[in-house]
């Protein structure tokens, strides 16, 4: 095995940021440290740095998204990168071009990072495999697979409020079967030393072989699953899943799995309540909890900006391998 | 042309023959095995010392893509791939464009194949018009034009009532229905085997139940109607068990295994490798073991490739969107022989699964090496190792998950009706 060329190279991130399944704690810590510095910056009146001056970031969204796209766009702009947003639903793909041709065409315009959101699992991986330049691919959510920056902003939020992840018990409540966020969260929580990750929901919303595949404990009884946990991550209940017979009604879902004040009481006294948004109040979470003292839902959004600035800096700034 | 194959190890699973012998061929048929008649003046002598001489392989599940998708494969390129793989008979599925649901398509396939002349091509007609699952095809007319069985492969007949009528009608004439078993609502949106790996990859899963439910339905309908059914590319342990039980009850139910289900599992999808995307999907190690056991004990009498060529672009979409299927004609023999190396089957039994096994299911005059039989012969060197190299294949598409595999057993000659189909370039 070759020794790294320099200490910087040993510390370098992978060229592409596609998911957290195989990302080391050292890499995650590097991103978190960088994000922590940016977190202070975003609270200053002058929020811009010259870090990515002259670099180009293209946000290529093949699936609609407001908050993730805005967060990446703002992150790039605050680093002084030239940021282009492409909503692929209104682009060449509608003229019959394949999405891979779109990716290759954009690559030919020599960007430094392509931030890709796609409805299909693995699409950013395919793009990364096809690129021939130094351009980095950043996964902004692929199918039901991974959404790594969302998970890292959750890790950052937990750390800022509770300190190290080590030893914490975390419950993820809701539709983990179709959630890219949940998979990335689970990988990151395990890598960072969480004591236990629990998935809570009816069998229709828990992925097949979850315990074997993801190393989690599965609870179908929300009260039992929330017992003593340090962090509760609520997932958005997608209304189409209700129509798709995954649960019979919003009313029954909220009764069985909705997070209200009583249920929060099962958790640790200093529990954190999180939600990646957008929330369905009264479906998965009661307003009294969403706006209550344990909620860190809005700080999550702020931290998301810092995480995306960190990832863009480390990849588009030329510090990746 | 009179051909003498001299001194090879002649294995004919159908008769149990396994001996070093000469094979004399005249007028497209086998004239003698053992010592050639004294007056046999060979025009061509093939030295088979160290080679196995067996019946030409029969692949009963192939997509030749012509008419309609010749950029993926056509009858000529598919026939070349077959000949290079030692395959002398292929049964080609009906999902061409237009669908092989009318006499003109059947005749076109037959005439093109005869012009190419490298392999015997046996069309399989559709069960329902345009594979829509609604109206039965004119099976009798199609059979008259040369269809050897009927299948909506790739598109299971969803309506149990239509399936009942199809079986009843086919049973009237003792026609065989070949069934791709998949319950649409259970497979809906699925991209790979439902299980731990799909969960890790965030890919929608297809449960074993999707296949098992339909096999169970069709076994029951076969019993109701007296129809003969053959279950294509069996991939689940539950499916194997259902077929085994049906056979134990004396029902006319047969089945086949595809090489990829005998060697790969769902973890071979790896990080979204589209060459490992197929229908039915690669299943668990337990399922693979069950399919292997069924091939070994004869529950499944055929190994068939489900040769499904696709151009590179069709495999370059995101995993869930890209086309299903793998090519197989050129790796069939090597992978079948690997089952011998892995002690799943002895050599004659392994060869039976790719010769007389499928031939008997389809009722073909093929897959046998006896005096008076047609001279469809495969010669291979059982010891030569080779590497699966897509760029050296004859199929127009090379979507194989076995690229880079080292296989033992290299085809040296393929004869169809006594004519040399491989190596190419025979001046006949």
Automatic annotation (TrEMBL), chain A:
It catalyses: carbamoyl phosphate + L-aspartate = N-carbamoyl-L-aspartate + phosphate + H(+). SUPFAM superfamilies: Aspartate/ornithine carbamoyltransferase. GO terms for biological process: 'de novo' pyrimidine nucleobase biosynthetic process; 'de novo' UMP biosynthetic process; amino acid metabolic process. It comes from the Bacteria. Pfam families: OTCace (PF00185), OTCace_N (PF02729). Catalyzes the condensation of carbamoyl phosphate and aspartate to form carbamoyl aspartate and inorganic phosphate, the committed step in the de novo pyrimidine nucleotide biosynthesis pathway. This is Aspartate carbamoyltransferase. It comes from Thiohalorhabdus denitrificans.
Automatic annotation (TrEMBL), chain B:
The active site is at 306. Substrate binds at residues 63-65, 95, 310. It catalyses: (S)-dihydroorotate + H2O = N-carbamoyl-L-aspartate + H(+). Residues 285-422 form the Amidohydrolase domain. Zn(2+) 1 binds at residues 61, 63, 153, 306. It is an enzyme of class 3 (hydrolase). Residues 51-236 form the Dihydroorotase catalytic domain. It comes from the Bacteria. PROSITE patterns: DIHYDROOROTASE_1, DIHYDROOROTASE_2. The keyword Flavoprotein does not apply. Its cofactor is Zn(2+). One of its GO terms (biological process) is 'de novo' UMP biosynthetic process. Gene3D superfamilies: Metal-dependent hydrolases (3.20.20.140), Urease, subunit C, domain 1 (2.30.40.10). Its EC number is 3.5.2.3. Keywords: Hydrolase, Metal-binding, Pyrimidine biosynthesis, Zinc. The keyword Ligase does not apply. One of its GO terms (cellular component) is cytoplasm. Catalyzes the reversible cyclization of carbamoyl aspartate to dihydroorotate. Belongs to the metallo-dependent hydrolases superfamily. DHOase family. Class I DHOase subfamily. This is Dihydroorotase. It comes from Thiohalorhabdus denitrificans.
